[in-house]
Amino acid sequence: MRVIFYTGKGGSGKSVLSCATALRLSERGYDTLLMSSDPAHTISDAFECSVGSTPTRIKTNLSAVQVDAFREVRDRYGVIQSYVVSVFRSRGIDEILAYELASMPNMTEFAAMLKIVDFSDEYDAIVLDTVPSGEMLKNIYLPSLIGNFAPKLLRLIVPFANIAKIAEPVMGIPAPSREVIKEDIKLIGVMKELRDILMDREVTSLRLVANPESFSLQNLKRTYMLANIYNINVDLAIINKILPDSVKDPYFDKWKSDQHRYLKEAERTFYPLPIRKVRLYPSEVKGIKLLSEVAYELFGDEDPAKIFFKGRGISVNETESGIEIVVPMPFVSRDICEVERTGSELSIIAHTDIGEIRNFLPLPTAACMMRLERAKMIDSELHIYFVREE
Predict the structure, then answer these.
(1) Model-wide pTM > 0.85
(2) Is residue 17 part of a domain?
(3) 126, 262: one domain
(4) At 260, which helix (H) or strand (E)?
(5) Among candidates 100, 103, 110, 116, which has minimal Cα distance to 131?
(6) How confident is the model at residue 155 (pLDDT cuts 50, 70, 90)?
């Protein structure tokens, strides 16, 4: 099985690329499911057909599903949510606010990701048009934080759930029912399965999508850093909506010049990650014919299920005194590099044979609470060390 995520800033075109990839996979004989939790129902527009909350057959080997994340939370995890709401209400919190507080960070998007476990045995490939943000990825570590002992403890508590009701006046909060405890155990199990799938580099790949512009690329840098921290393999970066050379109107000269500069920046920033380029189409991409064109431009004759890159670009490692950030810099031919911290980012200036190169990297949260100690080049890699403050 293959699981492929597409993520990028809103408007980058990740939905179209997800649809094109799923289409090409199906044409190569993979029984493919395309999943989306986008409330705008973009995949329905792209395939020009209605896609529902259960898998809808688009064509041979290709199905699509529009996950209603709010319904998923209500139908599958409503028992847990209702209990949490009752706890908040027992403390005098208004019901509307209690429901807001009872929602885990990014729970609706996370509920859509949990559907991967449901479909993992039914399809050869699953393509997701969704955003695995850093906040949402934190949730996959909950089973690790809870530990293996927690489900066993919960199972021991089940027979005493009714007895706990007697203690409610003393505790001042509602006691969980047997049903709540059983649903908690089930949810922990599903989250473990999801984590195992996402962290299996032979199965799951995250593909980054950006437009050739500053904000889009900055968003991608942070996502790339987070993916490395969470040990999720990023195997491809795609720069989408590039003005083609056939556009000769001088009105677009500055746009083309800026795009060329951002493309060069992307190649330096994400090396050794492969980068694919897709042109800006003259019209909105809709329908099987145009999606096939995009798929061919993106993959040519290659198999979209291929793992295009396995390994880490920018890596973050724990040390005895803090953390080490390793940045591949094969384009730096001389050992001359300047590193400066600017708020929550690192400013890196490399002096190369072709001139000065500047780059800004977002810092992981842990580094924000540490002091930048030193940086040095080792075998075409820049090693940056942060230490804990005394």
Answers:
(1) no
(2) yes
(3) yes
(4) helix 253-270
(5) 110
(6) low
